[in-house]
Amino acid sequence: MTSQRSPNDDLVIGVDGGGTKTVAWVAPLDDPTNTIVLGRGEGGPGNPRAVSYEFAQMTIGFAVAQALADAGRPREPVAAAHLGLAGAGREIEQTRMEDWACGSGAVARRVRVTGDAEPVLAAGSPDHWGIALIGGTGSLAWGRNQKGDVARTGGWGYLIGDEGSAHSIVTAGLRAAMQSYDGRGPATALLPALQQRLGAAEPSDLIDILYGPDMTRDRIAACAEVVFEASDDPVAAQIIAQAADDLAAMVATLAERLDLSPGGYPLAIAGSLLLNQESLRRAVLERLTTQHANPAEVTLVTEPVRGAVALARRLVSVPDA
Fold it and tell me: Could you give the 3-state DSSP secondary structure of residue 96?
């Protein structure tokens, strides 16, 4: 914690650090509406597990400096900051990033670091309870009940989790495509569609492309729209249906674990996949209704950083929040 007084003690900072982009907002400490933004900044990936702690810290510092400059304020610590970061869901990541932000990073006098789901819920539920569902490159559900109990499902990364995410949809499509090519699976329109998207003249060319040094998880995930464009294809339709099942299961499991009554909790939805693919979003909500785990209200959160700003303010008004 920074003890020296700062000319920015009337400000808070919210940071949303994802796998491809980091967004920082500077806002006034006193804004009960949580609508005023004084400065905005952006940087590259802010996931410390994906790009290293040092790179994430550099990126966050750059975005914060941009936001302060945009607000016409000096690069000095603000009253409080909340950093919602992908890849920072555990205490080990949170402590290391908090130490940096209160020390050499000098972001704020008070700093709290969480995973990227808590700001989504704060942005979608002013009372800060309910469930946040993220469906983007990866996937995760995180919830808090009115007693303050918290729990999560999913978010275990592309090797052992991320069911229902854009990455998992594309890899399922690629496997189905290659099984079709081998004759081990049904014919599917996904084979030529994915070849075209990835620039593969022949199916065998996919090996060099997908295993090449320039291919990232984000680039693979960006091909998810190909699967949705081919949704009339039975194989593609089954992959999409499985993704909806997986995402709904995350939410339903949390609702039961946190004792959230059907039709009685808010659901905040974020992530490029769920925000851009209405058919998938609708399918998830239909499954929740069938499973008697439907929410009372659904909010689409396009700017999770707004929730991070609200949580930064809580650090001052409710110091133990």
Answer: helix
